[in-house]
Amino acid sequence: MDRQIGTAAGSTAPAARQPLDDVDRRMVAELVKDGRMAVRTLAERLHISRANAYSRLGRLVRDRVIRGFSVRLDPAQVGLTTAVYVTMQIEQNAWRDVRERLTRLPAIQHFALTGGAFDIIALARVPDQAHLRALILDEIQSIPGVRNTQTQLVFEEVPDEMLLP
């Protein structure tokens, strides 16, 4: 949700966001590679002052260009050795309820409402076939509004760090 700012008439309007410039884009690219990078190091790599780096970083976080900092795990190393994409067809007005239920399933890593042959596509990670069976048959297919599912097993993935800018 956009932040609101007051106007002279007392109404509210969305806060103006500053467009990203080349330095902002380079900053984001550096932080995508290493979100734990010290601001001093970031400033040195971008050839800007630390004050400028702090200011830009604060703005990028405040404007939600950067939505947070996290750890990227190797799923297999933490025991999630089975990955699947689950496509779903849902009842026409069920999106909000289905979305709410999917957000509560820890195995679901990401999902999106899509157009085309399927309404939702979800990436799920589980330890093994037994957990996959339970996820699909007991959890996802029991969600009211889910009409049918198809499951595509992932055989191999390109690590996300290979896809970074």
From TrEMBL:
<dbReference type="Pfam" id="PF13404">
    <property type="entry name" value="HTH_AsnC-type"/>
</dbReference>
<dbReference type="Pfam" id="PF01037">
    <property type="entry name" value="AsnC_trans_reg"/>
</dbReference>
<protein>
    <submittedName>
        <fullName>AsnC family transcriptional regulator</fullName>
    </submittedName>
</protein>
<dbReference type="InterPro" id="IPR011008">
    <property type="entry name" value="Dimeric_a/b-barrel"/>
</dbReference>
<dbReference type="InterPro" id="IPR019888">
    <property type="entry name" value="Tscrpt_reg_AsnC-like"/>
</dbReference>
<dbReference type="InterPro" id="IPR000485">
    <property type="entry name" value="AsnC-type_HTH_dom"/>
</dbReference>
<dbReference type="GO" id="GO:0043200">
    <property type="term" value="P:response to amino acid"/>
</dbReference>
<dbReference type="InterPro" id="IPR036388">
    <property type="entry name" value="WH-like_DNA-bd_sf"/>
</dbReference>
<dbReference type="GO" id="GO:0005829">
    <property type="term" value="C:cytosol"/>
</dbReference>
<dbReference type="InterPro" id="IPR019887">
    <property type="entry name" value="Tscrpt_reg_AsnC/Lrp_C"/>
</dbReference>
<dbReference type="GO" id="GO:0043565">
    <property type="term" value="F:sequence-specific DNA binding"/>
</dbReference>
<keyword id="KW-0805">Transcription regulation</keyword>
<keyword id="KW-0804">Transcription</keyword>
<keyword id="KW-0238">DNA-binding</keyword>
<dbReference type="InterPro" id="IPR036390">
    <property type="entry name" value="WH_DNA-bd_sf"/>
</dbReference>
<feature type="domain" description="HTH asnC-type">
    <location>
        <begin position="20"/>
        <end position="81"/>
    </location>
</feature>
